[in-house]
Predict the structure.
Amino acid sequence: MSDIAMLEKMSNTIRFLSADMVQKANSGHPGMPMGMADVLTVFSSHFKHNPKNPKWLNRDRVVFSGGHGSALIYSMLFAWGYNISLDDLKEFRQLGSKTPGHPEVTHTDGIEVTTGPLGQGVANAVGFAMASKHASALLNSDTAKIIDHKVYCFCGDGDLEEGISYEACSLAGHLGLDNLVLIYDSNNITIEGDTSIALSEDIKKRFEAQKWEAIEINGHDFEAIDSAFIKAKSQTKPLLIIAKTAIGKGAATMEGSHETHGAPLGNDEIAKSKQKCGFNNEPFFIPEDALVRFRCAVEKGDLYEREWKKLISEAPLLEQNTALERILNPDLGSIKFPEFKVGESFATRDTNGMILNAIAKALPNFIGGSADLAPSNKTELKNMGDFPKGKNIHFGIREHSMAAITNGIAQYGLFMPFCATFFIFSDYLKPAARVAALMKAKLFYIFTHDSIGVGEDGATHQPIEQLSTFRALPNFYTFRPADGIENVENWKIALSLQAPSAFVLSRQ
Ligand SMILES: Cc1ncc(C[n+]2csc(CCOP(=O)(O)OP(=O)(O)O)c2C)c(N)n1
């Protein structure tokens, strides 16, 4: 760690850069970035990444689940040396800029997932951690760890109020994801005011009950923050770091107020705040010595990646290299699709099950599962084992987090995942499917029990408007094959697209 005075200077650089961005755009959220600047400053020295190669395979993944804090994210990416300039920061929230209102993977290097709808990022991070576990099960040997990175996720009160975070963290605890660190910005403030108006549970106990380890720190104490990230290096369970912070930290008169959450502070307040913190009043001021320290990330990242490349180029790892190569370049031509005949009377959920098995057998990177409906969805991948080593994922009855976890697995960069449920319960996962479409994520939804053929379950199980909803979704492909022959052709198309696809299938 650098000395405290330097850390304060670095932190204030991020804090006021974010406040200036929001002020110039005359819109945005300064409170969270200012409150979390101290945590992110210390995080910088623990985060293993390569700003000059944001896609380096063994990088730590970082998810900012509270996408409204995007000013903080862009300030950090700039400070670390990603492909984002000071001018880009000045273009915050402008049409066509690299710095849109909420972070989008399609716009900015270093953004791992598109976030904004609260809670989903937490599930995305669980997806990253699961993808990493599967990858390490396939690729690592006792002597050579090709995949051994961490997954960090920053979230706020809003993310933890959303039900999806409960679902996702429950699964993470069950799976014992010891590569996952969730940092909770516990500032007790949401838009309407203090969280006490709607939240009174003991979050630490909630996570402990979900088989996590949970610790609480003062999120403005550099040493405590550093110790928490050091602790994460030897975690044996998913780790929750509850960082008690003040929203709008550093604001002269508004620190701790919900009014800093989603509106510019105003020029007067910013000037007074900078003066109070002993910071230069010039807008977008970057102290050289603070920037140099953040920018160490470039040299360190280059070194990390070179060491990793050396590791994987060593001869004893030939087998692992071949496995990695096969995952990175799946041979679609090697799939032996089942052959169906005109007039054969199979339900399309059955033909789809056969197709899924054929694809999974041929492609090492094809994995997935259902929200407890595999026998009905016909999604079991036979003789291919269970996650983490095997390909069958048991998501439990958690559709929303299943889909957001699947987004994370797809965005991880190695896998083509699918998830499944009854078509009617696509309603429970739709918000994540929408983000998948925005990200152009390559993944597949298996929706069975379509239409009136649903059977005796009755009205609660009968899809009506779901088909129109998915067909209206941009960047999203909805296939509804009439038979096995069409089903195969649909899959060939879906596998060639860089976008999410849904298969709507009959039960009968
Ligand atoms: C699903 C969803 N519902 C509502 C919102 C609108 N929204 C954005 S931020 C926010 C409050 C979040 O509070 P918190 O996580 O504590 O963030 P902080 O106040 O610390 O910035 C709300 C309701 C959203 N982005 N996503």
About this structure: The chain has a mean pLDDT of 96. The chain is about 40% helix and 10% strand. The radius of gyration is 24 Å. Residues 50 and 300 are 7 Å apart (CA to CA).
